[in-house]
Amino acid sequence: MNRRNFLRNGALTAAALTIVPRNVLGGKYFTAPSDRINMGIIGCGAQGRWELAPSFAKRANLIAACDCESRQLQEMKRIIDETTAKAFGKANSDLKLYSDYRELLARKDIDAVIICTPDHWHAVMTIEACRAGKDVYVEKPMSHSIVEGRAMANAVAKYGRVLQVGNMQRSWNDFRHACELVRNGYIGQIKEIKVSVGTHAIPYDLQAEPVPPTLDWERWIGPAPMNPYNKELAPPMEAKVYPNWRNYKEYGGGMICDWGAHMFDIAQWAMGMDDSGPIEFTPPDEKELRPLTMRYANGTIMTHEPGFRKSDGNCVRFIGEDGVIDISRSFLDTIPGKLKTQEIGANEIHLYKNENHYDDFLSCIKTRKQPISTVEIGHRTASLCHIVNLCYEFDRKLIWNPEKEEFFLDSEANKRRANPIRAPYSIEV
């Protein structure tokens, strides 16, 4: 072979190597190390271990994990090692474990954090993460009170961060299609919306039990009111269940917040109310068989009616002048039936389309664009849930001003827009 042919063949070989797809080189989720975002995860409970860590470990460089329960932390390491070994051919040797989230946030090499702690921690950790220059993926409901949610939004704005709320139903095709049908008037003017989710939060009333030796109970409580440990709040891993802290108002918002953050969120999206909400909340009336009722400024009525489709669980029903749409994670039913496969025209309203909630967040970290479920969306949806809880608790009508974010002539309700924050923690932005 002469020199010219040698150089020509060598160049062709090199060119061929440069266009080999990355997935061929490193598996389905392969991304060059220089392209992967460095992340840490705070909270190694059920949602963190079973869903968020495996999902993000395939897509980013998950290099830190934090929890106040040492066994859960070690189990998280095993899961991340197993996930990265399968996705990239070797376990992530850079993974470091922490019991104090502030040490994780202090790392300069971490670009973003996943916060999947109990609700009462969301605001404090999100604000501190923003101050530390991290972008944030925070589980729903975004906040534990109305005031916390606004503080989180202020922190995101002040520090120029990207925040994605874990309202992942916005990234599912059926939910987006249902909302686009409503937005484009396919069932006419909306007269009523029914939302089926579970019950409201209750005060903590569990008996004290011995704290497991592997759990730092002071760290678990953090900014929330101190109460004795009970395994309902932090069950052992062997139970393989989601914990019930979410049922108690000191730490969660009941199913109103837990599932309402999903289903009320879809109602808000369909109504174009992502920056607002209902203005009137009326408690149920057993004599009139009337459920808890909300009214928007345009006159649309939304009700909280658990089980209105009997055994079908959490779902939303849109009732319009010309049809009905029922949507959940397991069905999309429409009247007329043809709407289920109705194509939305090029000149009609199209909502943010995204195929994967996690990919959307990672993409927005790079582009600095707003993700599908922003901090303002998360705040407005969570605020609606918090007000529903207050309406059940007070058992009286509440008049809400979405612009001023305050109740009309109701000092007691206005005080309850915030929860007490235990020292030394703060939501100051």
Description:
This protein has 14 helices and 15 strands. The chain has helices at residues 3-18, 22-26, 46-57, 70-88, 101-105, 122-131, 146-159, 173-183, 217-221, 254-258, 260-271, 357-367, 375-394, 411-415; strands at 38-42, 61-66, 96-98, 112-115, 135-138, 163-165, 190-196, 280-282, 292-295, 301-304, 315-320, 324-327, 332-335, 398-401, 406-407. The longest helix is centred in the last third of the chain and has 20 residues, at 375-394. 35% of the residues lie in helices and 15% in strands. With 429 residues, the chain is α/β, with parallel strands linked by helices. Helix 3 packs parallel to helix 4 (70-88).
Structure in a nutshell:
This protein is an alpha/beta fold. The chain has 14 helices and 15 strands.
